């Protein structure tokens, strides 16, 4: 979806006013004018080969920005003395690092030591949303790559068991509002979840309820079948996150209204007055969701951006 120049300017102005380092929509216009085309073609080809790529790259962007700001620390490999972010428990399902590595390799051939891995992730996240039917937005560029990556810091990612108060606090610590939180949660409209992220809702939920009472009963029974006790750790044991999991749309919010939010943190959005109205708004107005998602992605993409750092030559190791 195209946005007006006025809206894009407003997004850019907000970022310049709040970010620690000024980013620029035209950062690579002279130094690497083919950058976004190379990234888009790489992402498109990877998506045709593996339909799970869009959800994984979007999750990669979220998880990277939530730890140390958007600095591509999620790409760094673990070393003997240090376990890196990518090997932290919440990131085991991210995968698809090879897509960013492939794009970076191509960029190094054309524009050596110019385009940061952090910018590649941000652009790729936009592209997978657009390729999946979602909105388009202008990605501001000029991020630098971080040199520190620690698995134990992934504990700071919002968990699928969080209640609304915990979610608000987690997002607020990244400079994001309640509206941003509900909007970005809509990224769950594409993708798949393993049983481990929601099975606590299906058995021994509480002293008074075996199954989470906020969950649609028939939906809960379906999830139980998808996660049999005998084999709920298999690679394919789990469920898609909404009924149109390969399409970026507002079905995620419609599912929540029906009691079919997969994560406890998803369904919790309907039970709090601060977030319920946003779920209802986005469920009936996809254009509003797309507009807000684009704005919130720009905002998240500029959290914690600093001028210090480097432009990595290889995505998975520091220079």
UniProtKB/TrEMBL annotation:
| Cofactor needs | Ca(2+); heme b
**Plant heme peroxidase family profile domain residues:** 22-319
A GO cellular component term found in this entry reads: extracellular region
Q: Which GO terms describe its biological process?
A: hydrogen peroxide catabolic process; response to oxidative stress
Q: Which UniProt keywords apply?
A: Calcium, Disulfide bond, Glycoprotein, Heme, Hydrogen peroxide, Iron, Metal-binding, Oxidoreductase, Peroxidase, Secreted, Signal
Task: List the Pfam families hit by this protein, alphabetically.
Answer: peroxidase
* Residues that bind Ca(2+) 2: 189, 242, 244, 249
Provide the site residues for: Transition state stabilizer.
59
Q: Where in the cell is it found?
A: Secreted
Q: Which residues form the signal peptide?
A: 1-21
Per the record, what are the reactions this protein catalyses? Answer: 2 a phenolic donor + H2O2 = 2 a phenolic radical donor + 2 H2O
Disulfide bond residue pairs: 32-111, 65-70, 195-227
Report the InterPro entries cross-referenced here: Haem_peroxidase, Haem_peroxidase_sf, Peroxidase_pln, Peroxidases_heam-ligand_BS, Secretory_peroxidase
The record's cofactor note says: Binds 2 calcium ions per subunit. Binds 1 heme b (iron(II)-protoporphyrin IX) group per subunit.
Give the superkingdom in one word.
Answer: Eukaryota
Binding-site positions, Ca(2+) 1: 64, 69, 71, 73, 85
Q: Which residues does the record give as substrate binding sites?
A: 158
Which EC numbers characterise this protein's activity in its record? 1.11.1.7
Q: Which family does it belong to?
A: Belongs to the peroxidase family. Ascorbate peroxidase subfamily.
In UniProt terms, what function does this protein have? Removal of H(2)O(2), oxidation of toxic reductants, biosynthesis and degradation of lignin, suberization, auxin catabolism, response to environmental stresses such as wounding, pathogen attack and oxidative stress. These functions might be dependent on each isozyme/isoform in each plant tissue.
User: Which protein is depicted?
Assistant: Peroxidase
| Organism per entry | Microthlaspi erraticum
